[in-house]
Amino acid sequence: MSDASRQTATIRPEEAAHFGRLAGDWWDPKGSSAMLHRLNPVRLGFIRAAIDRHWATGSVARPLAGKRALDVGCGAGLLAEPLARLGADVTGVDAAAENVAAALAHAAAMGLAITYHAGELAELGLGHFDLVTCLEVIEHVADKAAFVRLLASHLAPGGMMILSTPNRTTRSRLLMVEGAELLGLIPRGTHQWDDFITPDELSAILASEGFTVTARSGIAFTPGRGLHLSDDLALNYILSAERR
Question: Domains of the chain, with CATH numbers?
Answer without folding.
Answer: 3-243 (3.40.50.150)
